[in-house]
């Protein structure tokens, strides 16, 4: 008997990118998961009807993420994007070489997420159809489960109003702090991604420059050898003209002239290559300037983050003081309510006594 054929996961889209993971301690900085760009692929498992994002670096899996309908891929810069994986309790970041690659990955992420959503809806519909016959009719809620009536006790309205105002102020302050933190984190992530791209380009330019310098030295040696050969040929031509009197034969003269022309053309080509390499050096210096500018911007952002942290600490202190004030007002209101309850009870007792006296 032949074994049953089992379909395996099939790749549906692949690209190359630099993979990062968020720092689990700070939740702000990116940690490179690979030294170089690796292949990132979408896989589809037909048996389980699920989609996964997988990337392997060397002998270990860098990304092994199951796509769910709740995931969202966010573009934080022109060549960098990120998404959160709640199952792995981490955030993945991808740095692409071009903006087009980032756009293609983002579109494919949306398609896969929609497909995962449809697969989940179909699975839920099947489960509902299977369990529909076993579900009993809902019973009426008893009176014991109903919410008890709310009793209103007249108290100092000015204190209640101040408590509600404090709650509104605290809520708005919390929203403002969250917005400040999100803006600072996004700017820092964008600058770190741009700095990583500049460092990668700088490394490539340095390697190309070293290779070009080695080639320049080799070409200089060849140029010196060609110049020596040219001088030697010219000396031979002069010797032949001196010995023969009327000059060398036309055939020998043509051969020497052709050799000289070839050597001059080769010298010219080498000079052009040297000029090209010198222009590449200028590009390298410009890239260094861009890198220094990115580092300066990153330092400024760190200073801004320090200032934001200081302001957040002050705001947290104010928030703590406001909470203490609110708790104190709540305790005062509670004491006032208790006193009012006692007074009401005494008045009720007095009313009953007066009714008894009137009846007598």
TrEMBL record:
It comes from the Eukaryota. PANTHER family: HOMER. The keyword Magnesium does not apply. SMART domains: WH1. Residues 202-332 form a coiled coil. Residues 4-116 form the WH1 domain. CDD domains: EVH1_Homer_Vesl (cd01206). This is Homer protein homolog 3-like. The gene is LOC115405974. It holds the Pfam family WH1. Belongs to the Homer family. PROSITE patterns: WH1. GO terms for molecular function: G protein-coupled glutamate receptor binding. InterPro entries: Homer, Homer_EVH1, PH-like_dom_sf, WH1/EVH1_dom. GO terms for biological process: G protein-coupled glutamate receptor signaling pathway. It comes from Salarias fasciatus (Jewelled blenny). One of its GO terms (cellular component) is cytoplasm. It is found in: Cytoplasm; Postsynaptic density.
């Amino acid at each position: 008997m032949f074994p049953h054929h089992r379909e395996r996961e099939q790749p549906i889209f692949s690209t190359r990118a630099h993979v990062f993971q968020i720092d689990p301690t700070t939740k702000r900085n990116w940690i490179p998961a690979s030294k170089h760009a690796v292949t990132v692929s979408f896989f589809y498992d037909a048996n389980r009807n699920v989609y996964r994002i997988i990337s392997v670096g060397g002998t270990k899996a860098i990304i092994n993420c199951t796509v769910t309908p709740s995931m969202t891929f966010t573009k934080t810069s022109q060549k960098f994007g990120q998404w959160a994986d709640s199952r792995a309790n981490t955030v993945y970041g991808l740095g692409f070489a071009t903006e087009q690659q980032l756009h293609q990955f983002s579109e494919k992420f949306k398609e896969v997420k929609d497909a995962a959503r449809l697969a989940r809806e179909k699975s839920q519909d099947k489960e509902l159809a299977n369990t529909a016959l076993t579900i009993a009719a809902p019973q009426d809620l008893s009176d014991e489960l109903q919410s008890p009536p709310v009793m209103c006790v007249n108290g100092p309205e000015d204190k209640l109003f101040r408590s509600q105002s404090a709650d509104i102020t605290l809520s708005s302050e919390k929203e403002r702090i969250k917005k400040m933190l999100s803006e600072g984190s996004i700017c820092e992530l964008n600058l770190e991604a741009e700095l990583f791209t500049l460092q990668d380009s700088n490394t490539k330019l340095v390697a190309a420059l070293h290779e070009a310098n080695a080639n320049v030295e080799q070409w200089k040696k060849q140029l010196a050898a060609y110049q020596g050969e040219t001088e030697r040929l010219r000396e031979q031509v002069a010797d032949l003209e001196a010995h023969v009197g009327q000059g060398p034969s036309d055939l020998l003269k043509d051969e020497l002239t052709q050799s000289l022309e070839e050597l001059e053309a080769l010298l010219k080509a080498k000079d052009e290559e040297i000029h090209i390499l010198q222009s590449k050096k200028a590009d390298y210096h410009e890239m260094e300037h861009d890198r220094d500018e990115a580092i300066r911007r990153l330092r400024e952002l760190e200073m801004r983050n320090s200032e934001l942290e200081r302001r957040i600490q002050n705001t947290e202190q104010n928030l703590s003081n406001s909470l203490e004030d609110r708790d104190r007002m709540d305790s005062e209101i509670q004491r006032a309510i208790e006193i009012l309850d006692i007074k009401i009870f005494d008045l009720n007792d007095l009313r009953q006594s007066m009714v008894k006296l009137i009846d007598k």
